[in-house]
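Incident log, support desk, overnight shift.

02:14 A customer reports that sequence design results differ from what the structure should imply. Their input is reproduced verbatim below. On-call engineer (initials T.W.) acknowledged and began investigating.
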C-alpha cells in the first residue's frame, strides 16, 4: 500500500466539489452491490476483514471508533467508562472508498482500513498521518490484539496512563487499580492523538505494551472484541476535552471541598473529636472538613472480622463513643463551617447481613468463600445490590453527612464506579439537589463524572514520597481525574516539623488538600509540630483559602472543557523539551506556577519557561527561558505567575462559608493581554447546572493598561463578591484601584 499514492488520492477526494461528493454518496448502494466492501450502519460502516467483523464509526465530534470482533456482529462495548451520550450524538461523517482503502472521515480526522492487508491507519483533519499502517488485529488465546503503529526510530513515550510509573513520560504500564494506584487503558501520543481502549468486560480492561524498534504498540483485549476510541488531538489540552467528551465531564464539587480537610485514623472518643475541632477554631487554623475513619460507625476495625461476620457488628450505624447524638454534633460542626465526611468499606461485617448477601448471591463471585477481606465484599455491579445499599445510607445522610470516603475498593477494576453510583442514587433520593462528593483510593475512566475525587492511598512518610506525590497527581490529571489528593504528611509515619510543613505547603496547591495519618503515629494536626511549624502551616492554609475563588473558577473550566486544575508544564508549554518530563513544579490553571520545596534542603532549582514571570511574593519581574536557584525559608513557597495573568484572591477566612468575607483582590500581572472568568454560585446545590451562577469576565488590555469586567448570570446570593480591589504589578511598583462587582465596569491603571 504505497503511502504517497494513498495520500494523494485521498487529498484529491477531499478537494472534490460538493456535486461530486453528492454523486459519490448517491452511488453508494451500487458500489456496495458490486464490491460488497462494506455496509453502512449508524454513524459509520461495517466490513469483514478475514475472520473479524470491523466497525468504523463516528463516536463524538472529536473521536472515531474502531471496533474489531471475532464473535460475530460487533457492537461498541456497553462500558461504564463511556458517557451515555457517546454514539448517540449526531456527528457529521462520510464514507471513504478508493481502491483498497475503506473508511470514514469526520471533522476530527479520517480512519481507514485496508482489508487486503489487514491494516488500519488514522489521519488528522489536515491529512497528516497520525498512526501509520498497522495490524488491524488478530485473535490470541482468550484475547484480541490490535496494534497501533509507531515510528520504529522513535522511542515509545506517551502521557495519561495514570500513576503506574514514577515519571510523566510513560513507555509500558499495565492497566490496574490498587492501593492508591490507578492505571487506565488510555494514552496520548505526542504525535497528536489519544487512544481509549475498551474490552468486552470493564473488569478485565485492555492493556498495552511496546517493544523498542518494533514499530507499534500492541493493545491486548481480554475476550473476543476490541474497541479503540481514537482522538486526533494536537496537544494535551485538546485531548483532555476529547477524553471527557467520551467519558463524561466532571461536575463542580461543593465549595467546601476546596477547603482544608483534616482526617485521622484513630479518633478516640467524643472529647477527642471536639478538642481537635476547637483547636482549629481557637488557633485560627482554617478548616472545612473533618474526615472520620472506622471509629465513626463501629467500635473496632473489621480487619479481624472472620468471613462469617459478627452478630453485633455495626455496618450502618454510629459509634456512641464518638457520636452519641450525631445529628446535634454535626449540626454544631456545620454552625462553625465544618462538614462531616465518613469512611465506607466495600464489604459487610454483620453476620445477619452477610448471610443475606450470600443467600442472594450478592458477594464478589469466587471470593466470598476465602479468608480475606473480599470474602465479605459486596458486588456493586449487581443492580440489586445497589438498590439495597442505597436506602442504608438514607438515615446517615439525614444526620448531616456531606460526603463519603470510599476505601479498599480494589476488589475489581470497576468497584469504585458502581459503588459511587449507589451513593449517587442515595444522594438524589435523600438529599435531592445537593452535590455528591466522594474520595476514593483509586478510579477508572468515567468515575470523574459522578463527582468523585481520588487519593494516593496509604503512602509512607518520607521526603522521597513527598517528592513523588506531584508526579502521581499530575499523571492522574492527565488520566481524567481532575481532583487528586494525598495523605499530607504521609500515612505510615510521623514527619518531622520541617517535612510536615513542606508537605502542607504542597497541599495548598493540590486540587484536594487533606492531611491523614495512621492510628499508630502522631496525628497530623498542625499544633502538634511546634509553634514555628504551626505558624508556617497557618500561612499555607491562609494562602490556600485566599486562592479558593481562583480554584473554584478552575473547577468550572474542568466542568466545561475537561482541562484539569493541576497541570504539568508540558500541557502549557508543549514545544519546550525542558518540561517534557518535569513534575516537581506545576501549574494551577494556566497562570500560577508552583515550585515547592520537596526535599530536606531549603534550596532548589526552578525552571522559568519562555516569557516573563513574576515572583508571587516579592512581585519581582523575572526573565524566562532559564533556570534559577531559589532558597526558601520554612515560611516561604516558591511561587510564580506568568505575565499576562489575572488572579482573583479572596480574604483570609476560617472556612468557605465565610465567603465573600470582604472585597475580592484582583491581581493583574502585565506584559500581555489577559482574561479570566470568575465563577460564583451557591456552592452546594446542583442549581448551577440550570444556569444559576454568576460569571464575571475580567479583561486586561496591556497597551491601554485597562482592566474591564463584565458581569453575567442570575445568581445573587449573599456569598458573592460585591467589591474588589485591583492591584497591578510591574517593575515600577504596585498600582491599585477599586471597583464594584455589582455590574460591569473598567479602571485604567497608570
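02:41 Re-run completed on a clean worker. Output:
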Amino acid at each position: 500500500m504505497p503511502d504517497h499514492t494513498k495520500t494523494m488520492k485521498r487529498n484529491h477526494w477531499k478537494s472534490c466539489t460538493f456535486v461530486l461528493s453528492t454523486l459519490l454518496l448517491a452511488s453508494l448502494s451500487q458500489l456496495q452491490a458490486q464490491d460488497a466492501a462494506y455496509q453502512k450502519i449508524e454513524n459509520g460502516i461495517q466490513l469483514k476483514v478475514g475472520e473479524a467483523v470491523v466497525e468504523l464509526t463516528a463516536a463524538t465530534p472529536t473521536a472515531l471508533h474502531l471496533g474489531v470482533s471475532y464473535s460475530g456482529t460487533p457492537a461498541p462495548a456497553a462500558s461504564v467508562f463511556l458517557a451515555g451520550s457517546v454514539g448517540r450524538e449526531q456527528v457529521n461523517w462520510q464514507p471513504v472508498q478508493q481502491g483498497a482503502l475503506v473508511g470514514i472521515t469526520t471533522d476530527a480526522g479520517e480512519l481507514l482500513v485496508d482489508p487486503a492487508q489487514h491494516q488500519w491507519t488514522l489521519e488528522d483533519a489536515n491529512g497528516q498521518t497520525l498512526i501509520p499502517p498497522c495490524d488491524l488485529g488478530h485473535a490470541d488465546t482468550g484475547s484480541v490484539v490490535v496494534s497501533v503503529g509507531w515510528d520504529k526510530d522513535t522511542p515509545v513515550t506517551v502521557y495519561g496512563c495514570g500513576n503506574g510509573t514514577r515519571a510523566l513520560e510513560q513507555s509500558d504500564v499495565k492497566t490496574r487499580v490498587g492501593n492508591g494506584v490507578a492505571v487506565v487503558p488510555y494514552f496520548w501520543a505526542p504525535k497528536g492523538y489519544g487512544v481509549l481502549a475498551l474490552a468486552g468486560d470493564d473488569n478485565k480492561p485492555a492493556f498495552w505494551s511496546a517493544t523498542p524498534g518494533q514499530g507499534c504498540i500492541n493493545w491486548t483485549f481480554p475476550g473476543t472484541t476490541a474497541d479503540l476510541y481514537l482522538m486526533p488531538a494536537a496537544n494535551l489540552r485538546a485531548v483532555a476535552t476529547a477524553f471527557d467528551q467520551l467519558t463524561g465531564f466532571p461536575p463542580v464539587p461543593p465549595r467546601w471541598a476546596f477547603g482544608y480537610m483534616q482526617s485521622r485514623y484513630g479518633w478516640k472518643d467524643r472529647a477527642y473529636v471536639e478538642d481537635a475541632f476547637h483547636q482549629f477554631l481557637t488557633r485560627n487554623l482554617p478548616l472545612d472538613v473533618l474526615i472520620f475513619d472506622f471509629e465513626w460507625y463501629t467500635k473496632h476495625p473489621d480487619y479481624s472480622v472472620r468471613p462469617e461476620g459478627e452478630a453485633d457488628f455495626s455496618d450502618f450505624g454510629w459509634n456512641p463513643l464518638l457520636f452519641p447524638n450525631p445529628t446535634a454534633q454535626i449540626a454544631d460542626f456545620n454552625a462553625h463551617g465544618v462538614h462531616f465526611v465518613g469512611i465506607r468499606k466495600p464489604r459487610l461485617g454483620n453476620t445477619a447481613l452477610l448471610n443475606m448477601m450470600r443467600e442472594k448471591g450478592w458477594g464478589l463471585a469466587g471470593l466470598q468463600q476465602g479468608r480475606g477481606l473480599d470474602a465479605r465484599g459486596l458486588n456493586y455491579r449487581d443492580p440489586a445490590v445497589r438498590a439495597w445499599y442505597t436506602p442504608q445510607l438514607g438515615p446517615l445522610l439525614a444526620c448531616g453527612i456531606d460526603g463519603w470516603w470510599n476505601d479498599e475498593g480494589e476488589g475489581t477494576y470497576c468497584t469504585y464506579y458502581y459503588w459511587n453510583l449507589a451513593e449517587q442514587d442515595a444522594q438524589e433520593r435523600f438529599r435531592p439537589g445537593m452535590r455528591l462528593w466522594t474520595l476514593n483510593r483509586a478510579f477508572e475512566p468515567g468515575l470523574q463524572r459522578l463527582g468523585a475525587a481520588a487519593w494516593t492511598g496509604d503512602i509512607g512518610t518520607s521526603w522521597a514520597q513527598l517528592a513523588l506525590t506531584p508526579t502521581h497527581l499530575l499523571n492522574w490529571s492527565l488520566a481524567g481525574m481532575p481532583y487528586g489528593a494525598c495523605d499530607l504528611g504521609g500515612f505510615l509515619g510521623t514527619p518531622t516539623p520541617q517535612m510536615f510543613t513542606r508537605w502542607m505547603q504542597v497541599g495548598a496547591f493540590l486540587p484536594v488538600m487533606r492531611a491523614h495519618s495512621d492510628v499508630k503515629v502522631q496525628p497530623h494536626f498542625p499544633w502538634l509540630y511546634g509553634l514555628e511549624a504551626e505558624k508556617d502551616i497557618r500561612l499555607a492554609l491562609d494562602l490556600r483559602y485566599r486562592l479558593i475563588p481562583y480554584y473554584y473558577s478552575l473547577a468550572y473550566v474542568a466542568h466545561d472543557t475537561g482541562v484539569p486544575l493541576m497541570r504539568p508544564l508540558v500541557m502549557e508549554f508543549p514545544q519546550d523539551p525542558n518540561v517534557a518530563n518535569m513534575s516537581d513544579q506545576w501549574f494551577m490553571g494556566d497562570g500560577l506556577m508552583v515550585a515547592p520545596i520537596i526535599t530536606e534542603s531549603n534550596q532548589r532549582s526552578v525552571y522559568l519557561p519562555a516569557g516573563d514571570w513574576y515572583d508571587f511574593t516579592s512581585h519581582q519581574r523575572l526573565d524566562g527561558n532559564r533556570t534559577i536557584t531559589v532558597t526558601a525559608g520554612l515560611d516561604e513557597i516558591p511561587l510564580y505567575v506568568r505575565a499576562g495573568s489575572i488572579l482573583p484572591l479572596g480574604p483570609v477566612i476560617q472556612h468557605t462559608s465565610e465567603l465573600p468575607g470582604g472585597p475580592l483582590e484582583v491581581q493583574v500581572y502585565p506584559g500581555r493581554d489577559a482574561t479570566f472568568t470568575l465563577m460564583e454560585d451557591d456552592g452546594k446545590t446542583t442549581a448551577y447546572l440550570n444556569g444559576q451562577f454568576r460569571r464575571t469576565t475580567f479583561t486586561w488590555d496591556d497597551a491601554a493598561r485597562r482592566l474591564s469586567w463584565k458581569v453575567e448570570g442570575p445568581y445573587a446570593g449573599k456569598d458573592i463578591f460585591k467589591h474588589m480591589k485591583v492591584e497591578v504589578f510591574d517593575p515600577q511598583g504596585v498600582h491599585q484601584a477599586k471597583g464594584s462587582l455589582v455590574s460591569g465596569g473598567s479602571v485604567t491603571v497608570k
